[in-house]
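sry for the spam today, last one i promise. struct tokens for design, 413 residues
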């Protein structure tokens, strides 16, 4: 009923026209790009921003007094302000540029974690996390003799808040969970998780790699302590991302890496560190890509998160119904609340072979463990086939994939 009322108002043809890469044939068929959870495509305005920086004002930032350096610095800092607004953080200093989600999580583990975790303390994650939100915590636990606790995943691919609450105690110091799962699409009940974790005095990091391009993300209303994301999954360039942290936490944390930019004063006897955010941005950053990220944010803002959400929900609903109707296709991950990710297996076929057959028809999906090996073990699977949607995908593309899957499955005896 709700879907009927909330019809998407986006002009998908006009959106597609902004993505040059979509207009091509692969293996003799029009490209159907369904690998958006791995990385999304880039609109022309992002590509042009990169070109413009390198061809018109390439310069190092912050230290230069000349005009090009000032222009580059202003453009770089403008992205920080856009990100601040994008996730509704209170201060622009709470936005730290990183290489991406993985580096953001590693930064928190190596600084906040090292400073605050002691022997016997506990860190909670969930069973559906990406390796990027598992391994940094394992490394920290090993170093500090702390304990990693994992919230179990149901057959539908959800966590039960009761299970989460049962793991919480005054030993819990950090809770780090995916806002949305890259492998199953599940949207976690992050607001409830944050509230409960705060009651026992733990801080919460949200791995928002799969959320920022698809869901409303408001760090103040969520009240998360840290939030990590990657530009390349939100129509921006590869090689950049960001960490949001509450100001008082970032100020108390030690630096992550040493080098230029992160210092106030250096002598051989002692170094004093710069204020946030620069304390965490050692060395020359990825200036061009950070500047171009501003255009990706602009692209999302121009369409409107609400419109994107409604449209991608329609795609997900349509594709789910179509896939469920194919004999021998089994969906993995049927959570009530999902982003546009469809993981499935085909009885009697290896996911890799299905991926190759779809590629032969110009359809790009991902196959394998999706960097979530423990989750695959939970479902006793080697991997799945994953189709993941972005705002430029169409119902016709879903029909194309469904027709191919029907052909593929009809040959299974
Ligand atoms: N977490 C999740 C949920 C992800 O989907 C990904 C990327 N697949 C990451 C973390 C890691 O992101 P990146 O490789 O950009 O650091």
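last one done:
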């Amino acid at each position: 009923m709700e879907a009927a009322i909330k019809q998407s108002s986006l002009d998908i043809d006009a959106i597609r026209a902004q993505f040059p890469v979509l207009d091509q044939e692969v293996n003799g068929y029009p490209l159907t790009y369904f690998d958006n959870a791995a990385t999304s495509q880039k609109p022309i305005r992002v590509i042009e921003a990169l070109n413009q920086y390198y061809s018109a004002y390439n310069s190092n930032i912050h230290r230069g007094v000349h005009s090009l350096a000032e222009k580059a610095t202003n453009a770089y800092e403008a992205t920080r302000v856009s990100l601040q607004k994008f996730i509704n953080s209170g201060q622009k200093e709470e936005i730290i540029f990183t290489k991406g989600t993985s580096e953001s999580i590693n930064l928190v583990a190596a600084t906040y974690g090292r400073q605050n975790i002691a022997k016997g303390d506990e860190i909670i994650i969930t069973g559906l996390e990406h390796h990027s939100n598992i391994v940094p915590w394992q490394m920290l636990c090993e170093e500090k003799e702390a304990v990693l606790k994992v919230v179990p995943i149901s057959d539908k691919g959800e966590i039960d808040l009761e299970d989460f609450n049962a793991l919480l105690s005054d030993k819990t110091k950090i809770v780090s969970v995916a806002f949305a799962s890259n492998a199953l699409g599940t949207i976690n009940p992050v607001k409830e998780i944050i509230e409960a974790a705060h009651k026992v005095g733990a801080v919460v990091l949200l791995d928002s790699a799969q959320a920022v391009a698809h869901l409303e993300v408001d760090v103040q209303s969520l009240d998360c302590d840290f939030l990590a994301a990657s530009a390349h999954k939100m129509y921006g360039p590869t090689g950049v991302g960001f960490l949001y942290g509450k100001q008082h936490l970032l100020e108390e944390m030690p630096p992550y890496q040493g080098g230029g930019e992160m210092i106030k004063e250096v002598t051989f006897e002692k170094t004093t560190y710069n204020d946030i955010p620069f304390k965490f941005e050692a060395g020359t950053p990825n200036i061009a890509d950070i500047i171009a990220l501003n255009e990706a944010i602009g692209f999302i803002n121009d369409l409107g998160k609400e419109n994107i959400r409604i449209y991608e929900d329609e795609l997900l609903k349509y594709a789910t119904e179509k896939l469920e109707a194919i004999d021998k296709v089994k969906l993995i991950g049927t959570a009530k609340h999902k982003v546009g990710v469809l993981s499935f297996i085909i009885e009697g076929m290896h996911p890799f072979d299905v991926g190759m057959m779809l590629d032969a028809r110009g359809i790009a999906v991902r196959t394998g463990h999706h960097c979530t090996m423990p989750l695959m073990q939970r479902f006793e699977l080697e991997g799945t086939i994953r189709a993941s949607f972005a705002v430029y995908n169409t119902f016709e593309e879903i029909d194309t994939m469904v027709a191919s899957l029907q052909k593929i499955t009809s040959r299974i005896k």
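The pocket of 4'-deoxy-4'-aminopyridoxal-5'-phosphate is lined by residues 37, 100-102, 130, 132-133, 178, 182, 207, 209-210, 230, 241, 371 (CB under 6 Å). ok im logging off now
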